[in-house]
UniProtKB/TrEMBL annotation:
Similarity comment: family membership: Belongs to the thaumatin family.
Record has Iron as a keyword: no
Signal peptide: 1-17
SS bond list: C26-C216, C67-C77, C82-C88, C133-C205, C138-C188, C146-C156, C160-C169, C170-C175
Protein name: Protein P21-like
Gene behind this protein: LOC111430189
Protein source organism: Cucurbita moschata (Winter crookneck squash)
InterPro entries: Osmotin/thaumatin-like_sf, Thaumatin, Thaumatin_CS
Amino acid sequence: HFRYFLSLLSLYSHTNAATFQVHNNCPFTVWAAASPGGGRQLDSNQDWTFDVNPGTAGARIWARTNCNFDGSGRGSCETGDCGGLLQCQGYGAPPNTLAEYALNQFNNMDFFDISLVDGFNVPMDFSPTSGGCRGIRCGVDIKGQCPNELRAPGGCNNPCTVFKTDEFCCNSGNCGPTPLSRFFKDRCPDAYSYPKDDPTSTFTCPGGTNYKVVFCP
C-alpha cells in the first residue's frame, strides 16, 4: 500500500510541476533571472524554459540589462543585478519589473502578479499557456516617461526605493496610493504599484497551469 501511495505522490508532483517559458522579445539582449531557476543570457527572440516544483512560493522572474559576465559567471548588471552572479541565487536589485508567483496555494490555486514595487526596467507580459485564466501585462515604456525624482540608470525606481518612507513603503502595514504610485498604476493597471495594491493586482489560475513571461511584449 505504501508503495502505491508513493507512486501516487510522484504522479501528483510530476503532473503539477509548472513549466515556465521566458521569451526575450526586446530588440536587445537581456539576462533573464529567476528565483528559483538561476539565470540565462537571452538574445533577441531567444527562449529559456524551466520547471518549477509545486508548492513553490515567493518566486519571481525578471530581466537584467546591460550586463557583463566573465567565463566563470561573475560580473554585474545595470538593472536587476543579483549579487554579481549570472546564476542568480536570490532576488535582484531595483529597478526591475517583476513577475511574481506562488504555486498550489490556497484551494490549490496559483497566485501571480506583475510588480512595479521594485521599479521598472523592461515591459513585461505574464500569461498562462494553459488553464483558461487571464494573463497580465505591463507593456508601456515607463522608463521613457519616468518622473525626474524616480529616474535611475536603465530604469525607473519605485518611490519606496528612493524615499524609503512609510508613506511609500507601507512598513507599518497601513498606506494607500500616492501620486507617484499612481504614475505606475495609470500606465500599467494590472501591476502592483505600491505594497498594498492587492485587490487589483493579484491574479489566479488553477494549480498545474504553465506560464510564459515575455520581455518587451
